[in-house]
Amino acid sequence: MTAKIAAAILFLALNGYVYWYLGSAEVIPPRAEFSLFPDRIDDWRCTIRETLDPATIDNLMVTDYLACNFVNEEKAASTHLYIGYHERQTRDRDSGKATAIHPPEHCLPGSGWDVIDSRVVPISLARNGIEGGVQGEAKRFVIAKGNQRALVYFWYHSRGRVIAQSHHKIFYMFLDRAREGRTDGSLVRFTVPIVYGDEEAAEAVFQDFAGVVTPLLDDFVPN
């Protein structure tokens, strides 16, 4: 048996031991449901709450979600906000389906959008002395479909961490499952139309809206 094979077996055995023994007691933390999320936040108003069809919910395996287009009539601006909460990210014992969060970059091509710019950026959001907000990293996309362009920001909001990259999310999920019995987490995604090719204006819309939304997240996304 080679050293590499032995190391792989040892890693798998340690993985199983940590997962099944050290983190055997699953913890589902308390939280407010998104039905209580406000439809009006400062000058932003949710026009209509979207309802995902059963097939989409079954595919996402999401526990609770918010999907709405928020508009600011004074600034003639709009932003689509999606927050999906997963109370656990494991494999469902009955259906065998994985309940982990789907990375948005895997879904965009299937819905007809092309990613024309992608980067990981530091993020620090809070506005006008509001307590809360987020600190961490986010994925920043510019996407295109025909003549349409949009700016997308998303991150994994998981157990007090704001994480941009899937492999980091998986590492911390494994660690927190072992230490705290928790695998819960959320995906937070903002989609802002780029009007007349003005990417800077779309960036300003995101910063303005996200600055008032993120201080509200703690009630809905457990830390």
Architecture blueprint of SSEs:
Layout: H1 3-22, E1 40-41, E2 44-49, H2 54-60, E3 64-72, E4 77-86, H3 104-107, E5 114-125, E6 134-145, E7 148-158, E8 161-163, H4 166-180, E9 185-193, H5 199-213
Antiparallel strand pairs: 1-2, 2-3, 3-4, 4-9, 5-6, 6-7, 7-8, 7-9
| DSSP helical segment count | 5
Helix content: 25-40%
Number of strands: 9
- Proportion of strand residues: 25-35%
Compute the gyration radius: what is it?
19 Å
The H/E string reads HEEHEEHEEEEHEH
Mean pLDDT rating: 85
Give me the secondary-structure category: alpha+beta
Low-pLDDT regions: none
Name the overall outline. Answer: globular
Number of domains: 1
Distance between the termini: 44 Å
Sheet having the most strands: 9 strands, antiparallel
